[in-house]
Amino acid sequence: MAQIRGTAGYNLGGQSPFGNSGRPEATDDPSPLDAIREQTSKIEDWLDTMSEPLKPYLPAIGRFLIVVTFLEDALRIITQWSDQLTYLRDYQKIPWGLTHLFLLVNVIAMTISSILVIARKYSEYAVAGLIGVVITQALGYGLIFDLNFFLRNLSVMGGLLMVLSDSWVRKRFAPAGLPQIDEKDRKMYFQLAGRVLLIFLFVGFVFAGDWSFWRVLVSCIGLVACVMVVVGFKAKWSAVMLVVILSIFNLLVNNFWTLHPHHPHKDFAKYDFFQILSIVGGLLLLVNMGPGQFSVDEKKKVY
Predict the structure, then answer these.
(1) If we measure between CA atoms, which residue out of 169, 195, 222, 221 comes closest to residue 283?
(2) How far apart are alpha carbons 289 and 297 in whole angstroms?
(3) In the chain, what is the straight-line distance between the N-terminal and C-terminal CA atoms, in Å?
(4) What is the pLDDT of residue 147?
(5) Mean pLDDT of the residues in the chain
(6) For residue range 200-221, what is the model confidence (pLDDT) as tens digits?
(7) How far does Cα 195 stand from its chain's mean position?
(8) Cβ(106)–Cβ(77) below 8 Å
(9) Cα-Cα-Cα-Cα dihedral sign, residues 34, 39, 42, 43
(10) Which pLDDT band, with edges at 50, 70 and 90, does 294 fall under?
């Protein structure tokens, strides 16, 4: 605490008239938390410097990556049309005719909504359309109770909520008889929901598969980063860490391009690859926008 001006002659500045200090001497040793904050601040400054050339393009890159799984899914349905019809009719017992309508509506909705998201046009309708596709596909393909599918798609929807937050500008809405609603307020709620949903993919990754030393190490680091993203503490730095972990995992595990065209797991690996790309896109939007007002980072600015 800085010494108060004008107290020099009245023994009010911290010195006792008897020669002893009027208060305990402050220690120069920083607490562990302060040391961590100092180091993470240095890392954040370095990341800001390194990413400066990419910053103008981060929103566009993030939006494209978020919808790339929908574009790939639409292309896969078109190229495997007959196989999709057979599966829906024989295994899901959907009547002939409804199967065609189901696939056609999904292809059109995914294609148009994805283009609108990339172009940043009518984002509310585009995001609603893509969330509708996620829900209808879960029901149509009988995957609603598949935990891995459920967690992945929660993360995809988190990315879509980040798209919504990114698209909103500050406006005023004044419905008759209601107080004015600032769109900035909506944005911070959706940013919070998007942050929370984004980390569910990593939760599914932690509890799936065989355990090894490296898996435990990556899981511990990733879980710490996930918690930091959720509470909004060093959220940008944590999101970058998750982007790196997920990208490396995606290239090493979901490398579908190395599999034979008729390999039974090729389509699954491709599906997982593009879904993780979508979640990486959501994290990039988080890096660009920040965690929002409901976060530790923003509270620190206030206090």
Answers:
(1) 195
(2) 13
(3) 16
(4) 80
(5) 76
(6) 877 776 666 666 777 777 778 7
(7) 5
(8) yes
(9) negative
(10) low
